Amino acid sequence: MLKAIPKIGRVVTCVLRLGLIINALTIIANAQQHVSFPTDDGGTIHADLYGTGERGVVLAHGGRFNK
Q1: pTM above 0.85, yes or no
Q2: Per-residue pLDDT tens for 9-64?
Q3: How far apart are CA 54 and CA 11, in angstroms?
């Protein structure tokens, strides 16, 4: 029984850390701006914009999703 107490403490610590991470990600996700713009070939690019500045990072996928 005494050996279970440190394990419970580690589990609680992990759960609390996970909660903080999820909370931070939720704040970041809510700060996004949805943008779209037309392409030369008649398509439309849809994206989520985070932050501002002179430089950026583009994360692209292989075509299975719509953003």
Answers
A1: no
A2: 788 888 889 888 887 777 776 667 888 989 898 888 888 888 778 998 888 877 77
A3: 42
SS3 category, 45: strand
- C-alpha distance from residue 44 to each of 2, 15, 39, 51, 59 (Å): 61, 41, 6, 22, 17
Q: How far is CA 60 from CA 6, 10, 47, 66, in A?
A: 43, 37, 10, 11
3-state SS, residue 38: strand
Contact between residue 45 and residue 60 where contact means Cβ atoms under 8 Å apart: no
DSSP secondary structure letter of residue 63: S
Q: How far apart are CA 48 and CA 17, in angstroms?
A: 27
